[in-house]
Amino acid sequence: MPANENQKEKWYASWFDTPYYHILYKDRDYTEAQHFMDNLTQYLNLPDDAKILDLACGKGRHSIYLNSLGYNVTGADLSENSIAIASKFANEKLHFKVHDMRETCEEKYDAIFNLFTSFGYFESDDDNLTTLKAIHNSLNETGFACIDFMNVDYVIENLVPEEIKTVDGIDFHIKRYVKDNHIFKEIDFEADGEKHHYTEKVQALRLEDFEKMMEDAGIYLLDVFGNYKLQKFFKSQSERLIMIFK
Question: What are the pLDDT digits (tens) for 6-26?
Answer without folding.
Answer: 444 466 767 877 888 888 887
